[in-house]
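RETRY 2/3 - previous attempt timed out on the joint model. Re-submitting the same 488-residue input unchanged.
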Amino acid sequence: MPFFAPGDDPGASFPELLRRTGLAAAHDADLRGAGSLDVPHATTCVALTFADGVVMAGDRRATSGNLISHRSMEKVVPADRFSGVAIAGAAGPAMEMIRLFQLQLEHYEKVEGTALSLEGKANQLSMMVRGNLPAAMQGMVVVPLFAGFDLLRGAGRLWAYDVTGGRYEEREYVATGSGSLHAGTVIKVGYRTAMSRDAAVDLAALALWEAADADSATGGPDALRGIYPVIATVTAEGWQRLDDDDLAQRYEAIAAEVRAR
Amino acid sequence: MSMPFYVAPEQVMKDRADYARKGIARGRALVAVRYDDGIVLVAENTSQTLRKISEIYDRIAFAGVGRYNEFDQLRVAGVRAADLKGYQYSRDDVDARSLANQYAQILGQIFTHEMKPMEVEILVAEVGDGAGRPDQMFHILYDGTVVDETEYAALGGDSEAISARLAESFRSDLDLAEAVRQGAAALGGPERRIDHTDLEVAHLARSNGRRCFRRLDDDDVAAMLGA
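RETRY 2/3 succeeded.
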């Protein structure tokens, strides 16, 4: 059981605790030349605000070069009850970053007795992305999106990041990953202020459809295997993921609309 | 050169134990009671901000009586140990028994090797999953003694009398409100009724999802006590 002298205490920081206990070694591994490895990459994610909060969505495909390495990867996950994180980039480091981020939010909440503010969570993720910069320089780039419901302001907020940990708050929508140009454009055209939850979810679903249509690394809805993108909303009631039956109906509607074009 | 006085080890241990017991007896007590959906912890605590009961992990809670700074230090160490273990292995590998043993090691070490023993008694409670894993409660004393409790536990000053009152009223099929009422009644005793604002209540409930720990606010407690 770890005990620290008052001046040496890692406080509520879990990554710092890992360093003090010598368990962080894996993160400091030498990644020189790792860029030439063919590791799985995760792709397109989007987030947009609507009247009661935010919608987050991401496709399920991971690719290694020209091959599909996973069909049912979950790149959009809850960070805690009132926020979610979505990732694009090298899948291994990205999943590890998400795991550490989720753990850090919970660790902070337990040690301090209160949860971090949404801004504090966004800042925390920024530092983690910044910490990944040496790996990013070797090709292991991780670019997350962060969105959540700010309980202090009573509104949904979202952030985009760059590889250096730069943190950019956006008012309307953000997109990341290989299909972000197409997905972002669909949302840009369809976005209205204070949309309903239903309309916002439909727009996110359409954005991923169009991205999958134009970008080979983005997976579309897979009716054959019953795999649909992950779409979730974060509101004052917390994180709610849409179930696959609901998404199947929405994608059928989109397919019907595309057929009728 | 001065000669140190010889003091018999029995006397040293007895003095330390008396010192720790006195410190613990000055504070207010707390109880843990099993009910149909988990374990409820009820503490007499006039502070609304300094907590005696808190969350350690998905299914594990911590409660302490005695000196606040000392049991809070133990609480944080427990959160760290649990989170590290869950990160290194799996969330399923974190269990109350291992935490209780680690606490016992630390308290035993401090009791025999430091000038001053810790003036605390702590409880590590784990709610089972209703299938294979049973509910567990470990009561750990200032000298590292571990007691495995099965139905209910009482910690702090006057804990023997409180335990005796719980033994009279406890049934194995209590619901949450009944368990809270019994806990509050046992803490207060026959002559005293503790106001709901002076109670800190939290529970570990199987039906709460991954993180089983929830605090009950003053209104919930008032409703359960029928106040």
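The two ends of chain A are 64 Å apart (CA to CA). Closing ticket.
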